[in-house]
Amino acid sequence: WIIASDTIMRRLVTDQSLVEKVSVFKGWFFVIVTAFMLWVLIRRLLLQIEDSQQEVRSREAYIRAILDGTNEAIFIHDIKTGRTLDVNQTACDMFGYGHDEMCTLPVEALSSGEKPFTQEEALKFMRGSAANPSSSVEWHARHSSGRLFWAEVRAREVTLGGEKRILVTGR
């Protein structure tokens, strides 16, 4: 549109001093129109990003409601280290800890700690169960109050967000 406007301007305006004034006006007009178009484009992109973020938050809330609504404790562990990455509300209630605290505790803190209910045994079970998801174990667990109880635990390997994880359920 710049080349076309220059050609039209040369044909319509013959006075050289007027050509300069019209060129300045045309330049400012181009800057203003371009800035407005960029503003509209950026505004549109920001609205799309906001909509996408809202959709992600909505999906996260949906999935969290499902996880927290189940009667089984759910733990998601790092497959290499066994570190707890996430838990549901049932797991928090079962063991008497808050979500953030549950994610920092080693598995051993949630068990009696006596053989065979140690951190090493828990990691062996998780890794072994990844290959055989139908296996379960009776785990001697410990509530935050110190009360011991038995839990049936199952584990399986899953892929979450492109990463291999161990999904452990207990009741």
Note down, in words, how this protein is organized.
With 171 residues, this protein is α+β, with helices and mostly antiparallel strands. 52% of the residues lie in helices and 22% in strands. It has five helices and five strands; from the N terminus they run ααββαααβββ. The chain has helices at residues 2-12, 16-69, 89-95, 99-102, 119-131, and strands at residues 73-78, 84-87, 136-142, 148-160, 163-170. The termini are far apart.
Question: What descriptors fit this protein?
Answer:
171 residues, alpha+beta, five-stranded antiparallel β-sheet, 5 helices
First-residue to last-residue Cα separation: 70 Å
Helix/strand/pairing category: alpha+beta
Number of helices: 5
Q: How many E-type strands?
A: 5
Sheet with the most strands, sense and barrel status? 5 strands, antiparallel
Oligomer: single chain
Helix percentage range: 40-55%
Taking strands numbered 1, 2, ... along the chain, how are they ordered across the largest sheet? 2-1-5-4-3
Q: Return Rg in Å.
A: 31 Å
Order of helices and strands: HHEEHHHEEE
- SS strand fraction: 15-25%
Please write out the topology.
Elements: H1 2-12, H2 16-69, E1 73-78, E2 84-87, H3 89-95, H4 99-102, H5 119-131, E3 136-142, E4 148-160, E5 163-170
Antiparallel strand pairs: 1-2, 1-5, 3-4, 4-5
Helix pairs in contact: 1-2
Quick summary:
The chain is of the alpha+beta class and 171 residues long.
